[in-house]
Specification:
TIM Barrel, EC 3.1.3.48, 3-stranded parallel beta sheet, Caps_polysacc_synth_CpsB/CapC, hydrolase, alpha/beta
Length: 271
Amino acid sequence: MTESYYMTVNLIFSMFDSIFKKRVSESPKVFPNHCLSVDVHAHLLPQLDDGPADIEKSVEIIKEMYVMGYRKIILTPHVMSGYYNNAPEDILQSLHVLRSVLKRRNIAIELEAAAEYYLEEELFNLIEKREILTFGGEKKYLLFEASFITRPSYLLESAIRIKQAGYTPVLAHPERYVNLNDLEVINRLAFNGVLFQVNIGSLTGYYSKPAQDLAELLINKQLVAFLGTDCHSFAQLHSIKSAFKLNIFKDIEKLNLLNNSLLEKKKSIFA
């Protein structure tokens, strides 16, 4: 996407907002068990992957997440060669446009952009070229996913390579990998510096019963570093709201989750 495209989009929404400007007021959290202020995994940048088709849908979801209690969202579009060839500059430009729209509508939520990288050799080519978007400032949290039937040994080898390159590997939705339903394997990954980001929707069985069981196990063993919505659409928020009402969120409050440590404004690292 070219710069002129984004300038045109920005101008259109500027005109639109001058007519339909709205304010999202401060409101208390409506989910008493919900302890999160930061989402670290969301596909809400329009037209970059399988998330919202346009910016209005992005805004609709973000407004609802604000009402749910979120005050910061880290946007993580897919990066997968041949499918989602999202360059850092395109992601950051899309972030700029979305931020501008939210600012004009007085939606006081902080946005940051990183990416969800597919585990493939191209990822390591990007790492070598320092064309990686991470979150967490100098922590350089690198969110990655793999094939759902990836061998644990390959995951471990790849995570070690990521760590050796100076990044902190964060495995997206480990509960959804069928080959990770083994506490010994999970502990080996954690021992080698892999952080786990569990999807909130998994706690309701949204993906599958085995994914729900493994998510609960990871929480009970205090092996979860981040919880994320992995939100792609407004409809998906229903399962997330349902999860907030579960008793397991009382156990989540006891975890040393890193989500809310990211609330202070920190620029994305492009390195």
